[in-house]
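hey can u check if this looks right to u? its 364 residues, i copy pasted from the old doc so theres a chance i mangled smth
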Amino acid sequence: MDKTIFIFDAEEGDRLSEDVHASDGKIIAKKDTRLNYDIISNISNHHVLEVKVYEKQDEPEIESPAYDKDNENEKYFDKIRHSEQFKKFKASYDENIIDIKDGLNDVVTNNSPIDTDKLIEGTQQILEDNKNSLQIFDMLHSMRQFDDLTYVHCVNVALISSIIGKWLGYGDDYVKILIISGLLHDIGKLMIPNEIITKPGKLTDDEFTIMKKHVNLGYEKLKNQNIDMRIKEACLLHHEKCDGTGYPFKIKGDSIPAVAKIIAVADVYDAMTAARVYRGAMCPFEVIKIMYNDAFTKFDPHYILPFLKNVASSYIHNDVRLSDGRIGKVILINDTALHLPVVQCGDEFVDLSKAHGLSVSAVI
């Protein structure tokens, strides 16, 4: 048997049960093709939203090379895991995460008053111990082998949001609001059934309806707390989109508060880099590409573009492998195509924004 899935839910290793066609009828991928990141991306780029794949137990026995989960992106992050910087980061992270978890749970289970200064001590300590903001993104990427529970996600969003605030030139008080908002934005998920939170596959419509209630549940926990209104708004509205496709109110553009917009950027970035923990590490330039495609619709470009540009720029001077197999060094980021940098391959300078069909497939 086969099943129809959204291309965004496709996993590396899925096998197509029928040919995939572009709008002009051209075959993009043939039946029995084993999907990987590049193929999934190519299908998505042709605006094909659904594909048919075999159920795992019904895959036909055909000769095809097994997909290597130990790919180059994973090797890059594995290299980081063995670095002294990562060991220090993880030590600081582990030391503070328990206190942060206890603080969040205390609010949910005991309705305890929120002491914001105490709540953010751990996150501020992590930031203080790791002053290189750009390195933190690679560190978070590299921790995908560890449990990705709700409270860990909240800490990650707090870290990312604080860095966005600093990149935008905000003062300490505003950055503090961002940190607290990040820590509390998903507190409602602690009241969602665990079998829904930890479900590895796609949620049913009923399950997704329950999941979406986490913003309302979180807001109910925070609305009577003596904390800044912007924090409460971020909890309730961080899933709103500038084009009106978000929830719970489907509000648009300027109706969405600034702090909620920043939390949305950090939330999606962390969710994307965590969502594929069971598929291996995702190329950072693929993450940038997906988010950049929504930069002028779902997100506010004022917040997301500086964020993506800084993340992309952190890979300047890094070696990468191109989708045609060549290895080169990133030397320049294209402002109008952040996921398509200029790469030096030997004596040749390849501008991926002008080289049709070429992309970065791995950071090495």
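Residues 62-70, 275-279 have pLDDT under 50 and may be disordered.
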